Structure formats: C-alpha cells, structure tokens
Amino acid sequence: MTDVTPLPPIISSRRMMATLGITALVSGVLVVAAFELTRTRIEANQRAALEQAIFRVLPGASARQSFIVTADQLQPLDGGADGVVIHAGYDRHGRLVGIAAEAAARGYQDIIRLLYAYTPDCECITAIHVLRNNDTPGIGDRIATDPAFLANFRALAARLNTERSALAHAIVTVRHGRKVEAWEIDAISGATISSRAVGKALNDSAQALVPVVQQQLTVLTRTPRGSP
Amino acid sequence: MTTPLRPDQTPPLTMDTFLQGIWRENPVLVMMLGMCPTMAVTNSLRNALAMGLATLFVLVGSNALVSMLRSLVPGTVRIATYIVIIASFTTVVDYAIQAISLTLYGALGAFIQLIVVNCIILGRAEAYASRRPLLHSVINAGGVGIGFTLGLVMLGGVRELLGSGTLLGFPVFGASFQPWVIMLLPPGGFFVLGAWLLLLNWLRGRQPGAAPTPVPVHNHGR
To answer: Rounded CA gap, B51 and B40, in Å?
Structure first.
C-alpha cells in the first residue's frame, strides 16, 4: 500500500492578488507616512551639514551665495537652471573669500564625495572636507583626518593654461614621499586608492569648474544678497 | 504530567517566549545569524547600537503585521508578502535614521537597507509570527531583537575600545594608548566574536549538568 500525500488546496488567483494588493497598500501608506513625517527634518539636516561643511572649508567666510554653473555661465541658484552647484563665500565686508564645490570619485569601496575650497586669488585649492567615505576604517578614512595628507590642500595649484580653457597641470596623486610639484598630492602610505580618488575627484571637478569661475569672477565678486 | 500540544494549539506565553532570543537562541552568539551586518558595522559601539535598534524595530513591526495578517495570507504568496512588509519597515527606519543623524546614516552605509534581507527577520516571520498570535509574536521578536542588539554591542564595545581606545567616542586609555587598528577591520570582528564565543561556551560548560553547545548548522545569510 502506498501513502498518498493530500494535495494542498488550490488558492484562487483572485485571493492571491487581493492579498498582495492589500499588503502593498498597507506598505505604501506606511512608507509615505514615514517620508512625510521625516522629510522636513531630513532636509534641515542636509542643509545644516552642507552649511557646516562650506564654512569649514572657507573659514574666513561669514556669508554665502550659491550659483548654478551652466555651460559657461553662472546663475543664482534660484534661477531654475540645471547644472553643478557652487557656493561663493564672502567675509563680513562682502569680499569674495573663495568658492566651495562638491567633487566625487570612486574609492576603494564606494564613491568618495568631498567638498573643496578654491581661492581665485591664488588659483589654488585651499581645503577639502570629506562628505561621504565608506573606505576601510583606520586606513582609507584617514583622508579625512591625516594631518600630513590634509597639508596637501593648503595651496594645491589649480592654475589655468594660457588659453584659460583647462588646468595648466592636471591634479594628480603621487606615491607617498614623491610629491615635487605644487599640483601633486602626496598619497597616504597604505591608503593609495583612497588618496588617488581624492586627486581624481578634485581634478575632474576643477577641470570643469575653474575655467568658468575665473571667467565669471565679476558675477561672483558682487556683494552677496544674503545666505540662501 | 503535561499534555503535549496539538499542532494547531498555541503554546502558552512564558518568560521563555521573550528570553529565548536573548540567551538560549541568541542570533549572533548562538545561532550565528546576520553575520554580514555583525562584522560590518560593529567597528564602534554607537554604530552597533544603532544597527541593533534599527533591526529590533523592523523585527517587532514586521512580525506584528505578519502575525495580524497570518490567517489572510495564502501559503503560495507568503514569502513575497513578508518581504514587502519587511521592506516597508526597513524604509521607515531608513528615513528615521536620516532624520536623527546624517553622520550615523553615513556610517551605517548600505547595511540599513540590507536589513530587508536579514535572515533573522524573515526567519522569525516564517517560523514564528506566521503561526502565533500577535502578543506572542511581538514579545518573541522583541527578545530576538534585544538579543541581536546585545550581540552587536558586545562586539562593537570591545572593537571600539581596542581599535580606537574610546567608548562612544570618549577616550578611555589616554593619549599614550596605541590603537589596535586591526580590531576595526573585518579580521578584528572575527577575533572578537571568536573570543566572546570561547568565553560564553566556557561559562556554559561550567554550569552543572550542562551539555556541550551544538555547532549551529544554519545557512549564514545576511
């Protein structure tokens, strides 16, 4: 005699669809409610983090104004145009202190995002602040804390070529102890990939932004209308 | 003499419903489940605590909803339903952490979103919440969530202490301490977990009449 296993009851497609539909509806309500309840707070956190980072890389600034960089123009952020956002920092006399802009490149584990300060007077990068870095703790994350590495950015050359169309010398990361030129970044020993990512991010961003910023300096040096 | 329960009978609510996830079936220290977040985010006590509490919230919320819907969900679509429910609570906790602290959110990285595929949560939904009433499911999920948080905190505390010389960011050993950087790296996570398992098994072995701890044979998913 053979054992006959009873077949499971057949569930109608309508019941399955109803179950999934109700579950999706409940989930949708839950997610939308969470989004609406936290949206204001998240936006405020993002604004505060950016504000803090801008004034950290532009320590002499007391006010800022944001601009959109289009093909070869600068427009105020509220102009509705699409493009890269830069932030001009001004001291209490309304003088331009420098420009803060975001840069990004792939690191060891993920994209490294940073904010850097560019000073038009010296045509150099004067500070960086790491916004996001998931590289190895204790090794790759030293790009944000290592004093010797951060010293690279006291006056990292970002001068334009004679045609004023690109950087005269690309910003590059060199192996630890091999830095000779003003546009070179001395890598952290043991964290070469993260150090190179910083160099690549700065070079990619500066190659695109510095020609426009230098060309539009008159727009930037006007007295700011206040911090947006 | 106690009468054995029929398959359709619900066992009574006892302290063990809550405590089994904390000690006897601790997900990290006994069942060895959820090893990916365990190794990845326990490089500091703060990250470990945040990850543990986020998982606790998703566990309790999703198990409560699974238990409430258990008589309505046909067996053929149950896994899809559980995943949608778990994903919803994971999204809620993702938004909540962004609202609390962007620094913390950045430190936990993708592991918050990956709670959705944490086998502890799906395992509890399938093995417990889909067969038990709401109160049983919530209490059991709470115990498992606290057990998971406890496991992460035990690892995160030791790794931060030895790897950075701090606890919750406050210096403990003074400026002369040379941090053991390896403790912040993945191998350090295995060293500390191994040391805790050794200590806990030794303590269990010293208990009178204790049987040797069985080696877990679970699939070590996320």
So the answer is: 10
Q: Where are the domains of chain A?
A: 58-220
Contacts of A19 by beta carbon, 8 Å cutoff, 6+ apart: B69, B72, B73, B74, B77, B81
Comparing alpha-carbon positions, the chain B residue that sits nearest to A27 is: B88
> Which residues are CB-contacts of A85 (< 8 A; sequence separation ≥ 6)?
A66, A67, A68, A69, A77, A101, A102
Instruction: Tell me, yes or no, if the pTM score tops 0.80.
Output: no
B94/A48 Cα distance (integer angstroms): 19
Contacts of B179 in chain A (CB under 8 A): 138
What residues contact A213, with CB distance under 8 A and at least 6 apart?
A69, A74, A86, A99, A118, A120, A220
Q: What is the rounded distance in angstroms from the CA atom of residue B101 to the CA atom of residue B167?
A: 19
Has residue B34 got a pLDDT over 70? yes
Q: What are phi and psi of B82, to 5 degrees?
A: -60, -40
Shortest Cα distance, chain A CAs vs residue B102, angstroms: 7
Residues of chain A contacting B73 with CB distance shorter than 8 Å:
19, 23
Q: If pLDDT is split at 50, 70 and 90, which confidence band does B2 have?
A: low
* Mean pLDDT (10-residue bins), chain A, 228 residues: 66 84 92 95 91 91 88 75 86 91 91 93 93 78 89 93 90 92 92 94 94 88 58
Inspect the interface and report whether the beta carbons of A42 and B98 lie closer than 8 Å: yes
Strand ranges in B113-179 using DSSP code E only, listed in sequence order: 166-167, 170-171
The answer to whether the Cβ–Cβ distance between A46 and B80 falls below 8 Å is no
A184-186 and A172-174 strand pairing: parallel
Q: What token pair was written down for A160?
A: 């334009």
**Total Cβ atoms within 10 A of residue A5:** 5
In this predicted structure, the answer to whether residue B142 has a pLDDT above a threshold of 50 is yes
Residues of chain A contacting residue B98, judged by C-beta atoms under 8 Å apart: 38, 42, 45
pLDDT tens, B166-187?
888 888 887 888 888 888 888 8
